[in-house]
Amino acid sequence: MHAFAGAIAEIPVGRYEGASGRSKKAKTLKVAALVVAAGRGHRAGGTIGSPKQYALVGGVPVLRRSIDTFDAHPRIDLLAVVIHPDDQELYLGATRDCSMKLRAPIVGGDTRQQSVLAGLETLAGEHPDVVLIHDAARPFADAKIIDRVISALEAGARGAIAASALADTLKRVDDRGRIGATIPREELWCAQTPQGFTFAEILDVHRKAAASGENRFTDDASIAEWAGLDVVVVEGSSANRKLTTAEDLILADRLLSSRDRDLVPHVGTGFDVHRFGDGDHVWLCGVRIEHSHSLVGHSDADVGLHALTDALLGALGDGDIGAHFPPSDIQWKGARSNIFLEDAARRARERGGRISNVDVTLLAETPKIGPHRDAMRAAIAAILEIDIRNVGVKATTMEGLGFVGRGEGLAAMASATVLLPY
């Protein structure tokens, strides 16, 4: 069995840990993600009927899984994909309902190096500070890896790549199949993606490589090394393996398709209300929104996340938010509600469960929810470590009726489906 077989079954799309402690002010870099999907995938053979990045694994195209990981991550500001000119229809089919982060597809070149340069040239118009370049055929990268790459760049690295320490013993073999030497592995790492760089520098070195006719590079770190840029390594994951062969695709599909076989759906609902008070913003579904008033509560009074937390706890039959985080406890005064939702998600995982989908309806006259809907979905997906496509956020007014209609406060109701073992 492949080394990644046991790991990928446990990696949810869009996984992210640590967002709850990150304030809006801490987000200092404009971060772009560039997914490279212009290859033909010849080593996957002709059995899948399309380029491997569009093959289904667990019912979802490989490319879509790669896109969703970056789309759901709150540190990624914009996202673009480089595709083969013949794949326009396949791409459109794989990317329906993505968020507004995703830009129009970019046509790539004959080599990966040319495709990356085409993508960088297009993104230059949006002036990102850093860019994370990722191979579409690595659909099991997770948000922790993205965090580590971005953190290295924030700390001053000019380049940072995900990688894993080599575990196998290496042998040098001659043309007759005889072992000639054992190669020390202590300083050897297997390069992965995403690979992150300061945007202006990686664009400049790609341009220089193209102008000089250098076209031998198999990843972006090697181009950076050629240009004399220091590149650091951050911890990747054994699951973050590139799907190269037809066997890889088949194995990944089997693992993902079978993981829910012995799980039963449990549904829970939640409801929450908070009144308005003095202030200049509200927190709704994990997103800070400027407003003429704030919501009053012991924590940040995020009605959307409170209702959703109760929905998850209801599906688990595990009390309610007040039982686990009593308002009388001073440690929760002013706390971000992400903490409560993360705890409910942890309880589901500890039961061997998986959150299938969640849905929140906000009852509000103001502020307007529509402009923030995608950010809310992304925030919830990141907290719960689920695919953003399985997160619904809606809003309705009360037509001037009741306390919501009079502008005295906000309410939210939510539902959640959790798949739990028999």
UniProtKB/TrEMBL annotation:
Site residues, Positions MEP for the nucleophilic attack: 185, 242
Region (2-C-methyl-D-erythritol 4-phosphate cytidylyltransferase) location: 1-265
Domain of life: Bacteria
Pathway the protein acts in: Isoprenoid biosynthesis; isopentenyl diphosphate biosynthesis via DXP pathway; isopentenyl diphosphate from 1-deoxy-D-xylulose 5-phosphate: step 4/6; Isoprenoid biosynthesis; isopentenyl diphosphate biosynthesis via DXP pathway; isopentenyl diphosphate from 1-deoxy-D-xylulose 5-phosphate: step 2/6
Domain 2-C-methyl-D-erythritol 2,4-cyclodiphosphate synthase: 267-418
UniProt-annotated binding residues for 4-CDP-2-C-methyl-D-erythritol 2-phosphate: 272-274, 298-299, 320-322, 396-399, 403, 406
Annotated site, Transition state stabilizer, chain positions: 43, 52, 298, 397
Matches recorded under InterPro entries: IspD (IPR001228), IspD/F (IPR026596), IspD/TarI (IPR034683), ISPD_synthase_CS (IPR018294), MECDP_synthase (IPR003526), MECDP_synthase_CS (IPR020555), MECDP_synthase_sf (IPR036571), Nucleotide-diphossugar_trans (IPR029044)
Location of the region described as 2-C-methyl-D-erythritol 2,4-cyclodiphosphate synthase in the Swiss-Prot/TrEMBL record: 266-422
Cofactor entry: a divalent metal cation
SUPFAM superfamilies: IpsF-like, Nucleotide-diphospho-sugar transferases
Keyword annotations: Isoprene biosynthesis, Lyase, Metal-binding, Multifunctional enzyme, Nucleotidyltransferase, Transferase
Residues annotated to bind a divalent metal cation: 272, 274, 306
Signal peptide limits: none
EC number: 2.7.7.60, 4.6.1.12
Function statement: Bifunctional enzyme that catalyzes the formation of 4-diphosphocytidyl-2-C-methyl-D-erythritol from CTP and 2-C-methyl-D-erythritol 4-phosphate (MEP) (IspD), and catalyzes the conversion of 4-diphosphocytidyl-2-C-methyl-D-erythritol 2-phosphate (CDP-ME2P) to 2-C-methyl-D-erythritol 2,4-cyclodiphosphate (ME-CPP) with a corresponding release of cytidine 5-monophosphate (CMP) (IspF).
Entry similarity comment: Belongs to the IspD/TarI cytidylyltransferase family. IspD subfamily.
Protein name: Bifunctional enzyme IspD/IspF
Species the sequence originates in: Candidatus Filomicrobium marinum
